[in-house]
Structures are given as C-alpha cells and as structure tokens.
Amino acid sequence: MDKQRLKQYRDLAAEAEELEEKIKELRGKAESRTWPDGMPHSNFAGDRTASIVANIADMCSLLDTKQAELLTRLTEIEEAIEALEPVERRLIRLRYISCWEWEDICEAIGYAERQMFRLHATALRKIEKTWQ
To answer: DSSP per residue over 99-124, as a string?
Structure first.
C-alpha cells in the first residue's frame, strides 16, 4: 500500500459520487417526461424516456462495479493501516477515505500543518513497510 493506491481510492470514490449524481439527474429527467398518471403524453416521449431509462440502467451497473471495487480497496486500506497509531489511522482515513483538505484535518486533529505533514509521512512509511 502506497500513497498512489490511497489516491486511487480517493479518485475512484469521486467517480462513484459523480455517477450517483448523474443517475439522480437522469431519473429527474425521466420523471419529468411523464404526467401524474405515469404515462407519457407526447409523440416521442416514450422513446426518449426509454433511452433515459436505458442510460440509467447502464450507469447503475457501472456504479455497482465501482462500489464493489471501492469496498475491496477500502478493506485493503483498513488492513494496511491497522498497525498505525490511532492518530495516524485517523489522519489517513480523513485524507484519503473522507477526502478532507489538510487545513480541516489539522483543525480536527489539533496539530499544526507542519506536524501533520510529518505525521503523514511517518504513517505512509509504516504503511509501505507493512504492505511489502
């Protein structure tokens, strides 16, 4: 486990979040194309709605795949950071799993930025040793 793999988890989580937002947007479009009786009322509304529903299904399938990969990677991260000190584990979780900014982490943990960067470097070295 290295910094690159931690960042990949963070990026994958962002992708999954963006997919969820896109699915919500498409569901809103699909719902707006029907009348309260649930039936489309324009000539091509059914085709458009069917296309949107197909896109939603495809995106949901992709989201399921990404979420399964996220769970696998999260398990790997948790196993790798188990040997760290509690404050180091918290730092790694806040930075890479919760995607917090450095300033927010410093405030939450109560360390100065310089101390936080040193703690981060130490935690990464420990993770790399346990992962090899």
So the answer is: ---HHHHHHHHT--HHHHHHHHHHHH
Contact 9, 97 (CB under 8 A): yes
Cα–Cα distance, 98 to 94 (Å, whole number):
5
Q: How many CB atoms lie within 10 A of CB 35?
A: 10
Please check the confidence at residue 36 and state whether its pLDDT lies above 80.
no
Cα 110 to Cα 126: distance, rounded to the nearest angstrom: 22
pLDDT in tens, 50-97: 888 889 999 999 999 999 999 999 999 999 999 999 999 999 999 999
- Measured CA to CA, the distance from residue 58 to residue 67 in angstroms comes to 14
Q: Are 35 and 41 in contact (CB under 8 A)?
A: yes
Whether 52 contacts 32, CB under 8 Å: no
Q: pTM of the entire structure?
A: 0.77
